[in-house]
Amino acid sequence: MAERRIVCVYGSVTGKAESIAEQLVDTAKSKGVQIELYSFAKFGTEWSLENLDILIIVSSTTGDGEQPETLTKFWRKLRPRTLPSDHLSHVSFSILGLGDTNYNQFCNGPKNLHRRLRELGGKEFYAAGWADDGIGLELVVEPWLEGLWPKLDRLIKGESDQLSGQVSGQVSGQVSGQVSGQVSGQVTGKASGQVSANMSVNFAYMKEPEDIKLDVLVLSEPSKSDAPEPELNVPTLLFSEKLSGEKLDLPAVPPRFIEVEFIDSVNSDSSIHQNNMKLPFSTQPLQSARIVSNRPLSSPNAVKTYMELELEPDNWFEYQPGDSLGLVCNNSETEVLELSRILGLESRLNSSCSISVMKETKKARAKIPEFVSSPTGFKSLLESSLDIRSVPKKLFLRSLSEFTSNPEHKRRIEELCSKQGSEEYMKLVVEPKLGLLDFLQAFSSCCPPLSLLIEHLPRLLPRYYSFSSSPTRQDKWMSFLYTVVERPRPGLSTSWMRTLNPGDSLRIYPRTSSGFHPPENQTQPYIMVCAGSGLGPFLGFLEQRETLNPPKSKAWLFFGCRNKEKDFLHGEKLLRYEKDGILSNLTVAFSRDSTENGVKYVQDALEKNGSVVGKLLLEENAVVYVCGDAKDMGKSVYNAFSRILDASGSDGAKYLLQMTSEKRYKQDLWT
Fold first, then answer.
1. What is the pTM of this model?
2. Which domains are assigned to the chain?
3. Are 140 and 133 within 8 A, CB to CB?
């Protein structure tokens, strides 16, 4: 039998899909299987669909369930309806999608890709996996990767091209709650919210609203005979009675591939950010902006601190209300100093280093991360290139164990990255979002070389903020709202921004538009729903709407705050907008004030006005905009709209799907 060409491609935004794809290809090499690795960005230049046999895809989701930018060319190639149904009949494929169930259109981009490959005759040799970053990607990624190898082996040997079977592995974490929008079914756990380590992960076909079959993971309860033993003493980061005497299945130590040499001096350009690698969703280069004002909007005794920052960019750029900007921030200087101390490199903080690939490395396609320049300043590397707060992946922990001198520490790190330690890894590392610095402080005998950090730490990414201004402003200043994050730890960007004063500068760039704009048809009514700093983009909506004189459509705003006297952000302005007819209706829910009328949260306010809201949606074709926290507010509002539509005589879930497809239900959410 002729040797089959196997290609693994990834569509990545933050680097997670790329990292998983690299892990997959490295594991294949250790098993004697040759798999070529490419980015979707290289489609048409370095790889194509015509001359491959087996295609393995690892792809993420961005925006409101959209494909990553790098898939644009590939997706356009597959979209034409004129393509025959056997166009990809020569390709056997499987796909691992990455998404977040805190958003309604969970894994929508990868699922659309999966559906289209099948429509064009692609043969699915192994069931798709949909990994949820809201509860931990590892819950699906690890068992999916484990189950891939026997299926791939059978395919290579020509024994089977049929989708079948189950993949089992140790899974843990909280897997519960509604999965709405494009998700074909629910992923649920035990009543306690924790998934047993003995549960099996089965791939099953479920039907979607349009009879489109998609593979989803269904977590099934073990039988009574397989029930887990009573829990031993509760494990901590440093010790687990349950795992202390157990034989461990450990991943292979990733091959080393980076070398670092400190040098005395180097002429470096401080204006170059992350080796000039393209910033995610950027439409223009990074530029400086001068701060005009940075003022609190909430009272000093409010539960949360809300701020508004006005700025003047060096080069003004076009934008629309609802658009956002990317803002570059550095790691905390305190954390950088502490990390350099732990690494034993305090004396090198002002030194430069030369970074190169080891000549004798066993890693295939080894390269310096694109966002790391060489030579570079050591302090600059820690401050602005590496995300030192990122949660260490299991393979990183496996590598860290090799640089841990205390036997007890080494054993415990091995437990956390083992198959047997998956549940504890989720509970003790992923869920509390333990960063590298936290980990090294806990395991004091672990002292990795700088080169290992460069190999494993992801890129420090920009933060995104929606404009609270509109381009109709005469002064051409731009503004955005932000919440100062203080728990569970001070937020990286917001803690820094609150210290900035007028005249200071920061670095920004315009972000690719997501289409979160007021309706183009000025007579079409719309409903805005938000809480806290989610008010930001709607201030821009209303600022522009004020120039229409008078507005031609209805506009309702449902706004959630805690206290009228403490955090009714821009309260006077909003009340003026309602009085002047810029807003047709303003409804504010104050969750910490009296709730005698039954309204506590913004979703309660929606249902209190359910008959009018239902009429706006069903009879007047209103557009809905939701801005705020995805995990709590976003889901609750979605469910409230569903109940309102049900009560109005429609099928709420089905109608919301229709609204989403028609771009009438738009969300700007964050986690």
1. 0.83
2. 6-225 (3.40.50.360), 240-266+332-461 (1.20.990.10), 270-329+462-514 (2.40.30.10), 526-670 (3.40.50.80)
3. no
